[in-house]
Amino acid sequence: RRPPRSTPSNSSAASDVYKRQIETRPKRLWDKGIASYQISSSLGSALGLVIGSFVKQFYPFRETYIFLSLFGFISFIIALIFMKEPKITLERLYITTRVSGISLGEIMRMMWSGLVNLPKVSGIIRLIKELRYSLIRGFPLFLIGCLSLFLGIAIFFTPLPALFKDMGLDDSTILALNALPYIVAVSFYNKFAEKSAKSGLDLLIKAVFSRVFIFPSAPLLFLAVKALKLSWVITVFVLCVFYFLIGMTWSAINITTNALVARLSAETHRGSGYGYFNAIIGIAFIIGSYVGGWIARGMGYLASTLTSVTFLLASVMIFRELIEEAY
Q1: Number of helices followed by number of strands (H, E) in the chain
Q2: How far is CA 122 from its chain centroid?
Q3: Is the CB of residue 150 less than 8 Å from the CB of residue 284?
Q4: Which residues contact 138 (CB under 8 A, 6 or more apart)?
Q5: What does the alpha-carbon distance between residue 32 and residue 251 come to, in Å, rounded to a whole number?
Q6: For residues 62-90, average pLDDT
Q7: How far apart are CA 40 and CA 25, in angstroms?
Q8: Proportion of the chain above pLDDT 70, given as a percent
Q9: 251 and 185 Cβ atoms separated by less than 8 Å
Q10: Which helix (H) or strand (E) holds 61?
Q11: Angle of the 171-214 helix axis to the 301-320 helix axis, nearest 10
Q12: Is 324 helix (H, G, I), strand (E, B) or coil?
């Protein structure tokens, strides 16, 4: 199959949207601006799942995609008519090869130096120390933490629909459950935006660490359904609670990570900062999807969940290093 042609435009749009939310507001309102955007985005995602599942009942996939693409065209027309340029002038920022003052060339040089000395234990230790104290600080360290975080998320969620199928749930129920966290997140965005403005990194760590305990409940529920022969009602009720917690923690993760990009990246290169951030998310979901599916198929859902939790714990340890730098 051909790769989706909308991917480059989606990545560009995401970076530009967050950059405009930051640069058209004072710093104290950054989190509120991101929250307002995420509320509309989450409502759109939830409605899309509901409308898509409804239309799919009456038309084949090809006709369904053609019909639903009209919503994208309508949104373009609405934006063209009603969205105005911000009153303040936005500085045009050019693509740079520097991340928060650290050149990518320097990072590659240090990595090559480490690879050459890999056979020596002292070389490995020296590489870790140099990266730890000279290169991987501030925004680059934050990106590494995000890579670990979103790898864990992708590894967990990729085999989840197949897990629900094995529980005996139909497509409509699975789609409805997938819409639930978006709706839940909407009710928490404004609340978490206030907390993120004061201590976003601490909120992020708590949300990620909560998922360390939330994620294992899915395979455990699967085992309970098989062993105890739980009814459809009990199964769906427990999954609703599960997705409620997923939506609540996602709202905290979504708000804090996007706000921290602005706080940790260089002031004159925030556009590039969001570009790097979205690239990290894309890489994490590409790799995580393959890894999660491969582990679940070969070793089971519990193994993929434990792998996911390992990456989440690693991200928590990395984010803890940034507490003094973010605010």
Answers
A1: 13, 2
A2: 36
A3: yes
A4: 100, 264, 322, 325
A5: 12
A6: 69
A7: 18
A8: 65
A9: yes
A10: helix 61-82
A11: 50
A12: helix
Structure-block tokens of residue 4: 């989706």
Q: What is the pTM of this model?
A: 0.68
pLDDT in tens, 33-67: 667 666 767 777 777 767 777 777 777 767 777 77
Backbone angles phi, psi at 287, to 5 degrees: -70, -45
Cα separation, 268 vs 275, whole angstroms: 13
pLDDT at 136: 41
- Which two three-digit tokens encode residue 320? 């803890």
What is the per-residue pLDDT across 129-174, written as a single tens digit (0 to 9) for each? 544 443 445 778 888 899 999 999 999 999 988 888 888 888 878 8
Written as one letter, the residue type at 284 is A
Alpha helices in 117-231 (DSSP H): 121-130, 138-157, 160-166, 171-214, 217-228
Q: How far is CA 148 from CA 145, 283, 290, in A?
A: 5, 11, 15
Per-position DSSP letters for 265-292, written without gaps between them: S-GGGHHHHHHHHHHHHHHHHHHHHHHH
Give the CA-trace dihedral at 292, 298, 299, 301, to 10 degrees.
50
Are 159 and 303 in contact by the 8 Å Cβ rule? The answer is no
